[in-house]
Specification:
The protein is an all-alpha fold and 215 residues long. The chain folds into three domains: 21-74, no CATH class; 76-156, no CATH class; 158-187, no CATH class. It contains seven helices and two strands.
């Protein structure tokens, strides 16, 4: 019986490269009530740098760190909107059975104001996301590009034009001719009034002499 001195070995290879999370400034933060206080706190953190440029850079780094920490304590917009809608719905159902008290009515009005503010922040949030998505996928020959092109075509295309006789023109050449004719009629023709410069023969001769002197 022959024995082998080989032993199987299982090797696990894994690499873990530390990556810093990308900081993205959210535009809807500026609508938050505590945003200015957070910015002031992050900007006024003491910085010990002799160089003015390095001092400004250090302040921006501190501000980014403070905003990133503050972001973790902000409640989700969608969650807040859903909770406020649920409370408003509850008060409206309660109002169907009895009149709301003064405190309940004021509370409902405050909820409506807060809901409008949160919906505006959500609009800003998705507007920023839409711009980022367009930068990433806008030039690609994908469904997102075709959908945007279709929306822009429907928004900016002129379906028809109506002339002075009330006729509607739908073809491209007819619309182009009507626009050109209307533009020429509105521009009109200028009439000669007078010349603001003295272009007499003596003046031209003196200018020619100055330009050619010295010979």
């Amino acid at each position: 019986m022959q024995s082998f001195d080989h032993t199987p070995c299982i090797v696990h290879i894994n690499t873990k490269i530390p990556r810093d999370k990308v900081f993205r400034f959210e535009n809807y933060w500026m609508e938050h009530s505590n945003f200015l206080q957070v910015v002031q706190h992050g900007w006024t953190v003491p910085v010990h740098c002799p160089d003015p440029a390095m001092k400004v850079m250090a302040r921006f780094k501190n501000l980014r760190r403070v905003l990133r920490a503050w972001q973790t304590h902000i409640s989700s917009l969608s969650l807040l909107i859903d909770n406020i809608k649920m409370l408003i719905n509850f008060l409206e159902v309660l109002e169907e059975f009895r009149d709301l008290s003064l405190h309940e009515w004021n509370f409902k009005e405050l909820l409506n104001v807060k809901l409008i503010s949160l919906l505006d922040q959500q609009r800003i949030y998705w507007k920023q996301r839409g711009n980022l998505k367009y930068v990433k996928f806008g030039d690609g020959n994908i469904k997102f590009f075709h959908a945007n092109a279709t929306i822009k075509f429907r928004k900016y295309s002129i379906a028809f034009l109506q002339n002075q006789a009330g006729e509607q023109i739908f073809d491209h050449n007819g619309k182009a001719d009507l626009l050109w004719t209307t533009l020429k009629e509105r521009l009109g023709v200028s009439e000669f009034s007078h010349i603001y410069f003295d272009l007499s023969l003596e003046y031209l001769n003196s200018v020619t002499f100055l330009l050619t002197w010295p010979p």
